[in-house]
Design brief:
It contains four helices and 16 strands. Helix content is 16%, strand content 25%. It starts with 46 loop residues before the first strand and ends in a 6-residue tail after the last strand. It is globular. A hairpin with a 2-residue loop joins strand 12 and strand 13. By secondary structure, the chain is an alpha+beta fold. The chain has a domain of 213 residues.
Length: 322
């Protein structure tokens, strides 16, 4: 993950500056300094970008800079616990096994061995905990964006859905928005950010429809959310990126948590790196999903983790090491 870090020199106070926009008018993170806070943007930063395979080579190859080591704390809060929600936006967004599968994944995320990979990180409010409770899902049949949306558009969708359902937003909520929108030319699979609904702080994440998308496919085996049934490719793909975004949200919910000198969060630093155990499948209760490993500062310091794409032995898998 990289965040917008653009110096707005010589811009008059009060002027909104839009940089890095693509042709459809949405924010497309590009360049070596993406994405820690777009200067002047009327919305939160696009954080935790889960780049598609081959679309973003990572900080190690940007201008020849070496891959950073451990993450550092940026003087803000983490999430000591969380409540998760799923919003399926657009026609067919939760079709097939997606609604039931994501419900099973999020229901069993809290207390899993996998979430233990994040519990070494602390903030102003305490330590990342293992408690994460799935609350409910929503279906919004209105048209989802036809292209990659802005952060503010996703935040507006979260607030609209909650208001329409008469649900009060909660400050420890993580609202996962699974859309029918295909990735198209966007170079990423998902991202997370933050904002507020009716004055209540909220965290949320955006996910494309990844059916048939080889760039965001974790690969087989896909696992199973229910006995005797193999997860579909589309479910497997959004479960993997959900593991990425939720893990980053609990360790860096509002831009003051943990990331490295090139803005890589814990999931970014082990993206597309899967456990060498059990075919990469991780157990969440009675379900299994192939999800990426997560970075551990402690494991990197001790050299006891599994290697990421850059041969850094720092990744924990939720199977054997956590």
């Amino acid at each position: 993950m990289r965040r917008w870090q653009i110096a707005a020199l010589g811009v008059a106070v009060g002027t909104t500056v839009f940089l890095g926009a693509c042709e459809n008018g949405t924010q497309e993170p590009t360049g070596p300094s993406a994405d820690r806070g777009l200067v002047g943007a009327p919305e939160g930063p696009m954080m935790g970008i889960h780049w598609a395979r081959g679309e973003h080579p990572g900080p190690a190859s940007v201008h020849g800079r070496p891959q950073p080591g451990n993450m550092t704390w940026h003087n803000g809060a983490i999430m000591t616990s969380s409540r998760t929600y799923a919003i399926f936006w657009g026609s067919g967004a939760g079709a097939g096994d997606k609604t039931a599968g994501i419900t099973a994944f999020l229901t069993n995320f809290g207390g899993s061995k996998y979430i233990h990979a994040s519990t070494e990180y602390t903030g102003t409010n305490g330590t990342v905990g293992t408690g994460s409770a799935f609350v409910r899902s929503f279906t919004d049949g209105s048209a989802a964006p036809s292209n990659a949306p802005s952060v503010s558009a996703v935040q507006s969708e979260v607030c609209k859905v909650l208001s329409g359902a008469g649900v009060t937003p909660v400050a420890d909520g993580i609202y996962n928005v699974y859309a029918s929108t295909k990735r198209g030319g966007a170079g990423y699979c998902a991202w997370h950010s933050y904002g507020s609904c009716n004055g209540v702080p909220v965290q949320f994440a955006w996910y494309f429809n990844l059916d048939g998308d080889s760039g965001c496919d974790p690969g087989t085996p896909y696992g199973s959310y229910t006995s005797g049934q193999t997860n579909s490719q589309g479910l497997a793909a959004i479960a993997n990126v959900t593991a990425h975004e939720v893990s980053e949200t609990i360790t860096d919910p509002r831009n003051g948590g943990w990331y490295d000198s090139q803005n890589g969060e814990n999931a970014d630093k082990c993206a597309w790196s899967f456990s060498p155990n059990n075919g990469g499948l991780v157990a969440f209760g009675n379900t299994t999903f192939k999800v990426q490993m997560e970075w551990s500062n402690a494991a990197f310091t001790a050299g006891t983790g599994y290697a990421n794409r850059y041969s850094q032995k720092a990744c924990l898998d939720g199977v054997v090491k956590y």
